[in-house]
Amino acid sequence: MKMKIAVLSGDGIGPEVTKESVKVLEGIAEAFGHDFQFTEALVGAIAIDKTGNPLPEETLNLCKESDAVLFGAIGDPKYDNNPDAKVRPEQGLLKLRKELGLFANIRPITAYDSLLDKSPLKREIIQGTDMVIYRELTGGIYFGEKKLSEDGKVASDLCEYSQFEIERIAHLAFKTAQQRKRKVTLVDKANVLESSRLWRRVVTELAKQYPDIALDFLFVDNAAMQMILNPSQFDVILTENMFGDIISDEGSVIGGSIGLLASASVGSGTALFEPIHGSYPQAAGKNIANPIASILSAAMLLEQFSLHDEARLINKAVEILLNENIGTIDLNKENPSSTSEIGDVIVKLIDSQEVSIGG
Ligand code: IPM
Ligand code: MN
């Protein structure tokens, strides 16, 4: 298969981890005879430094004409503590999501058996966790009208959703549930928010088209608690933009490290694949960051193009590596591997297993 992949590695540890997922995709291309063409482009703080724009036109055009986008991380401390900054790195990612119509962000959360004791949560609580969060990504409070009064003393962000926006992601969530444990949990705040009540009405109505799926509802505050009290009760979680942002970081605790969590953002155009972690500037340039989230995002990219054997091979290689207790410092404090070593081990494992799967 021939594929054009835009590589937007961004800020902080983004370039280091993305380099490893490109390495892994190159390994896959070689093993399976694919032709993956990688083109790099600027995004985020580094794009602001070089062009004044967190999402230069050139980058956006490249993404639009590519088959997929491999995204690294975005953000820089020099903007975080400056509420008056006019341009921010995050605007690059938000604009990209909007422009590419990436309305659904898919974030799987699994408790690997070999990592059960790495999580601060008890092993008996997290064992067997296998859920996926469907987070709406181009609506809600992130994109509603923002206001700041003239005197700078009052601010507001509008949270708005339409039936159409809710339906299109809900269909994806229900279809995924049909391939999994056949349960969808809608997470909202319908006891307080009108927009949440719309979600409930629309999702309840739509669920009639999926009689094989059990639908239940949780208020987000309770959901946040349930996710760490009894995470194995969940299959597919469907939620709006901001709640999804928050509970997916919370969910990363289950897996033992946020450095493991991958995501796919899909919608009407080119799909985008990115780790859920941020730019982790403290680790940038040190070759210590965990590249697995980025590598698993590359596996989700392959899955999106129905390259199932290829994706499975990466997932299996990651599992083997974790079983052997090979990991960056977040997972293995006594004997940490470097970022690039992890990529190398995975490529090696892919090479050795390719024969057994039959290419
Ligand atoms: C994420 C990130 C982004 C978000 C930031 C960087 C804008 O936290 O992808 O979860 O809030 O969506
Ligand atoms: Mn986030």
TrEMBL record:
UniProt remark on cofactor binding: Binds 1 Mg(2+) or Mn(2+) ion per subunit.
Record carries keyword Cell membrane: no
Gene3D superfamilies linked: Isopropylmalate Dehydrogenase
Reaction it catalyzes: (2R,3S)-3-isopropylmalate + NAD(+) = 4-methyl-2-oxopentanoate + CO2 + NADH
Pfam families (alphabetical): Iso_dh
EC identifiers of the protein: 1.1.1.85
NCBIfam families in the cross-refs: leuB
HAMAP family: LeuB_type1
Protein name in the entry: 3-isopropylmalate dehydrogenase
Organism lineage: Bacteria, Pseudomonadati, Bacteroidota, Flavobacteriia, Flavobacteriales
